[in-house]
Amino acid sequence: MEKKQFKTESKRILDMMVNSIYTHRDIFLRELISNASDAIDKIYYKTLADDTLNFEKDNYYITIASDKENRTVKISDTGIGMTEEELSDNLGVIAKSGSLAFKKENEIKDGYDIIGQFGVGFYSAFMVADKITVISKVFGSDKAYKWESDGAEGYTIEPCVKDSVGTEITLKIKENTEDNNFDEFIDENGLKSIIKKYSDFIRYPIKMNVSQSKLKEGSKTEYEDFVEEKTVNSMVPIWRKNKSELKDEDYNNFYAEKHYGFDKPARHIHISVDGSISYNAILYIPEKTPYDFYTKEYEKGLELYSSGVLIMEKCADLLPDYFSFVKGIVDSEDLSLNISREVLQHDRQLKLIAKNIKTKIKNELDGLLKNDRVKYEEFYKAFGRQLKYGIYADFGSNKDVLQDLLMFYSSKEKKVVTLDEYVSRMPEDQKYIYYASGETNERIEKLPQIEMVSDKGYEILYFTDEVDEFAIRMIMKYKEKEFKSVSSGDLGIDVAEKENPSSDDEKDNKELFEHMKTVLSGKVKDVRASKRLKNYPVCLSNDGELTIEMEKTLNSMPNNENVKADKVLEININNDMFKVLKESFEKDKEKLNLYTNILYNQALLIEGLPINDPVEFTNNVCKVMI
Ligand code: ADP
Q: Is 168 in the pocket of ligand 1 (CB under 6 A)?
């Protein structure tokens, strides 16, 4: 037996790899299974090129067997095998890929199913094994050879006996240490779950002896254990199947199998693209909001496969944040993988796929809104807030994608409507898209500020999510119509003469309002006769960019800077209460001060804002009663 040395630099590479290329040591099994699958593919290509040969599908499979006592795991295949020279070349020279050479020799286009290309995957087995034995018999020969290595001291090759064509790789799994436990690699269930995770869609059967139990013959209570060989991988991934073969149930089952959620998906999108980049994808829009969806813990991303082999469990770059609720997988043969096959080399292809996926999701949602309103509204209830965050984020750069997907509750329709629906039924004289903000629809309905706008017959959108006003600020205009809060200074409504406070009135009342403003100094920017109130005595409006709802939201955030909206106390001069104010202005300033404070606090309460001193407020109310 001749002992050969690894080429000197190989030794270092081997060491480096075992310790640094891979982040997950369980991928060694993925690498060995991929090699086995490549080896079977190679026989398949040979039979394609040779009419005298036949490819009997049943004869081609991969077997995984573990032996707990001896701490070994054996990966066998019925693939093409290796000659003595190939064993030496392919397994003795690191970074030499026999598979890549095969692809070139046989002019197999990149992206065809053969997975190997870097010539390092095999050595990843040294992460978990301290000795590897490879027995191989090449197709068309009657000679078999055994290659063996402990990783550090080179390898040996010697002739041996093997009945059938193919390769058998035995790993002597490392002993456990204090920090490292390797038992999952000799455990039946451990191995099975690694196969399912990375290699579920390898095209050939991966067989394992699976222990099971059954009722003993003749007994109704006693069980006996037995071992049965089973295929553990699904082989054909659902996304490679023809859409016409698949039913909703198949998609739903895949969703459950993948643990995307406990709910049923609301929609699935099956994509097969063949073009400048080819990929298959199955995407899901879940029905229910995941419990952690609006928390920091929620991680967006799609599973990424390359030719049926799992590369990344959550590839975040495939989804924009505003579609982060989408679950699913993407499989492409066109990705440039880095050497560990755990990450991508270039993201050009990924960017193309991501762009394409974004459009597909958007189209799906557009279609849903158009064709199945009930379902869309359910979707919107679950994930609408995320779309609104999406508009607000990145300085509104995604508003064009998202604004037509928005829905708000309408004062007129008493249900949610889209912006397009709102604008399309706006009367000609209506200048703005009106909205009112508050905690709930019920509370907004009672806001004094909406009186004028609704009396005018205009529709008002109710904003009950904190993000609503912020998102709308980014949109600014929808179909040339600006948004206007019902609490903003100028509503842009022409009010009938008698309701509108005339300039004479204004002059008359000027001193009274000035006085009230002094009483409320630091609290309001101005006190004015209202142009929007009809029945209610008072309300607050805002004078600047920042609305009262925005003030509430910003101040509820951690590290808030205690921002304040410029508030205006509006007085309904047609209300009887106003006569009392006027009277007390003439006769009893102290009373006027008391009334002013009460009115201001009432306005705060209506807005859902805290009043500064509740005790003083209730005392004041009592004073009025006495
Ligand atoms: P890669 O798979 O990226 O080419 P590997 O280090 O995993 O790199 O394998 C090196 C080469 O060894 C492969 O390209 C292939 O030619 C050969 N090889 C590995 N495993 C097998 C196998 N089970 N059957 C036949 N050839 C194999």
A: no
